[in-house]
Amino acid sequence: MEMNKKSKHLRGIFVKYLSIFCIGTLLLLLILGVSYGMLLSNGEILSSNYNEKRIQEIQDTMIEQKKITPDLINGEYSYALFTTNGEIISGNLKESTAKKAYKLLEENEVVEDFFYYYVKVSIEDKVCIFRYSISSEFKSPLLRKFLPTPGILTVILFVVFFILEVIILALLFSKQIVHKMRCLHEVTEKIKNQDLDFVVDESGIYEIDNVLQSMIKMRNALKKSLEEQWQLEEMRNEQMSSLAHDIKSPVTVIRGNTELLFETELTNEQKEYLNFIIQSSSQIQEYIKTLIEISRDEMKSNLKTEKINAEEFIEEIHDSISALTGIKKLQLEFNKGKLPKDFYGNSSLLKRAIINVVSNAVEHSKENEKVIFNCNSDQKNIIITIIDYGIGFSEEDLAKGMQKFYMGDSSRSNKSHYGMGLYIAHTIAIKHNGNLILRNSKITNGAEVEIQIPL
To answer: Residue 19's CB: how many other CB atoms inside 10 A?
Structure first.
């Protein structure tokens, strides 16, 4: 993947959204300002000195008519009517507020107290105190009742639309970045799954494409390394197969000639030596057989499945493991639970996997002990469990027991053990999309191996 010269930088995208944000904010201020100005010019919003002028008009009317009456105020403003002694006659101001206002205006005609102004009008034996604020107001009494002043309402609207603008732009920006970075996630998933033959599309962002280029280089290096490893493994298998076949012929000759020697006159000591040679050559032949099977890599080839009758399959397994346990005079506890009528798999490979596990159980059991074979099924799998009364698995056995050529401490004393039984069984189970699980039995404290084969 080559870098596109037209790729955008992250800073460019950020500046773009920042510019949109600034322009949007200015437009918002402009719209609110123009709207406020239009309503002000149309008279829907009263100017900030409207209250002051209106109260001055009411004062002039009271002075002209030489009387103070509530009908002149018309309920338009907050007020309180007093006697000259300071006693409240009427009004819509709270009593505490009215008394405070009266005290403030004892020596002044107009007093400012925080957000309000107080004005006093004295005619004959009555005193009227008005309260008003210097701020714009809605012309409609209904709007004045339920809404804040136009100035405060404008600020509230600005804050609300400003927050909405920030949220929308943040979501759009993050959505674009997440969409552009999706290709990184796809590439990492493919490399993780060792799917190294894939095409990468450019994201259009310079920094992300730089990371993609690095990942492509890593992909190519990994692919080359794996190909070399596969070639080396294939060569090693070929060499192992050739060597095994080359060794097989002289070993056969040795065994054949040794057997011929038995037909001649021999001393007891010579016969003993010949027995050792035959036993050793048998062990070498078994080892060669295992090497050939590994080099052929049979279990990594395409699995040929067939419809298997579950009852017949388990009966065949029962006969085979009965023969194995009988050699060492072991008791066999064979438990068969509910099984499906049929399932699909490779019967010869599955038998091999089960026999390998049972052989391990027999090897690690003492004479007259017991081997338990349980076979059952659930909605997804046939589950076969083999349990022995041996010493069980060590921590290292549980971690490495299914590795090729692994031999635990308890197995190394057995010269016929090559560390392949559990490896082969596990490979066959995996080839069937199943699993093989190692653990120590809570019942016998010996080894417990569970084979799961999907139905």
So the answer is: 10
